Amino acid sequence: MAKTVVEMIDPRDQGAGPLDLKKPVFDPNAVARANEAIKAMAGEFQAWLERDVTRVQDARLAAEASAWSNATLETLLIAAHDLKGLGGSYDYPIVTQIAASLCRLIETDPGKTAARAEPSLVAAHVDALRAAARGQIRTDAHPIGRALLQALEARVAALGVAPR
Question: Which of 17, 66, 128, 160 could form a disulfide with 148 if both were Cys (CB 3.0 to 4.6 A apart)?
Fold first, then answer.
């Protein structure tokens, strides 16, 4: 059997040195190419959003079927957290806000207990996400979107289980 040789490299000794932040990290052409790539993908955003919302809905249904077990609530939290991060990228900032409210509800043990006691609040969050995607409600400037978001956030805040 051959011996494996391991070499330790200290990046402070081998590194490229400090960055010169006086000049832009990316040249204007690279930024323009990135913006064009985003525009080219924009047509796919709605399908990607709907896929991710379906993932949250499936996680909610699994949580409900398991009597809101910790494991399935964690799966729901992961799906909601992913959507929270992607909503703005999909040009749906309200999705980010609704998903963030759902995350605040179920990310703590007291929140999971509250979700078990009031599963309709979890369902309301998921249904609001589904409605935003289906109705193409992108921001809280939309009156229905604003009303949904305010009601959900107020209910989560009233439970007192979520970090802010």
Answer: 128
